TrEMBL record:
One of its GO terms (cellular component) is plasma membrane. The keyword Glycoprotein does not apply. It is an enzyme of class 3 (hydrolase). Residues 7-254 form the ABC transporter domain. It comes from Alicycliphilus denitrificans (strain DSM 14773 / CIP 107495 / K601). Gene3D superfamilies: P-loop containing nucleotide triphosphate hydrolases (3.40.50.300). It holds the Pfam family ABC_tran. SUPFAM superfamilies: P-loop containing nucleoside triphosphate hydrolases. It comes from the Bacteria. Keywords: ATP-binding, Cell membrane, Hydrolase, Membrane, Nucleotide-binding, Transport. One of its GO terms (molecular function) is L-valine transmembrane transporter activity. This is Monosaccharide-transporting ATPase.
Length: 254
């Protein structure tokens, strides 16, 4: 497996009204690993994800994806290139079924056209069957196959989090950005998801994880970056980073 980074940020900066939200940040996320990005509230972590996904535009620096400068690409182009994300605030079609929500992630990979699907041509039926089989496999992996036909909006917060992650994985990403994926979950639920994320990473996907749950971060991440006020203040192995006095003062407040 290649160790060249799937994602590389090189001196990335973002200002809002002259105030720096992200200030000269450099980091990398190699394939097959889970890389953590942590920091106190207001450290610019979600802004970093929005910059990577093209939702916000850089003030300075550049973003490389598989060695290519993608700093100016739009979000839709980046998704087609192989980036996917989850959100702090869950965004599902609440009236749709669990299966429908997961299937929506495959739209980027649809090869048959409108008329083929409308007329039910064999090529369209075959593609739909393949997507349903892949969605079913995701439901099995996340322990939600028995809820496939339930409306997403009627399920628990933890289940809705899982649906969002399955939808992101249905996009078959090379880079998966997770924004506080275990927020509101207990240790058992978080541990179960951590195991799934590790399996996803082992398949070659690069994962960049933003998370406040330090126990979870130390369990799943191989490398951490710590930001405060938009600046990188530490990086390295989780245990070493969390023992750094600078991190303790800035992030833990003691």
């Amino acid at each position: 497996m290649s160790t060249a980074p799937t994602l590389q940020l090189d001196g990335v900066g973002k200002r809002f009204g002259g105030l720096p939200a992200v200030d000269g940040l450099s980091l990398s996320a190699p394939p097959g690993t889970i890389t953590g990005l942590i920091g106190p509230n207001g450290a610019g972590k979600t802004t970093v994800i929005n910059l990577i996904m093209g939702i916000l535009k850089l003030t300075s620096g550049r973003i490389l994806f598989n060695g290519k400068d993608v700093s100016t690409l739009e979000a839709a182009d980046l998704a087609r290139a192989g980036m996917a994300r989850t959100f702090q605030n869950i965004r599902l079609v609440t009236e749709g079924t669990v299966l429908d929500n997961v299937l929506s992630g495959f739209h980027l990979h649809q090869r048959t056209g409108f008329w083929a699907n409308l007329l039910g041509l064999p090529s369209a039926r075959a593609e739909q069957a393949a997507h349903r089989a892949e969605a079913q496999a995701l439901l099995e992996r996340f322990g939600m196959a028995h809820l496939a036909e339930h409306r997403a909006g009627t399920l628990s917060y933890g289940h809705q989090r899982r649906i969002e992650m399955m939808r992101a994985l249905a996009m078959r990403p090379q880079l998966l950005l997770l924004d506080e994926p275990v927020a509101g979950m207990n240790d058992t639920e978080a541990s179960e998801l951590g195991h799934i994320f590790s399996q996803v990473a082992a398949s070659g996907v690069a994962i960049l994880l933003v998370e406040h749950n330090m126990r979870f971060v130390t369990q799943v991440c191989s490398h951490l970056y710590v930001t405060a006020s938009g600046r990188l203040i530490a990086q390295g192995a989780p245990d070493a980073v969390l023992a750094d006095p600078v991190v303790i003062e800035a992030y833990l407040g003691s």
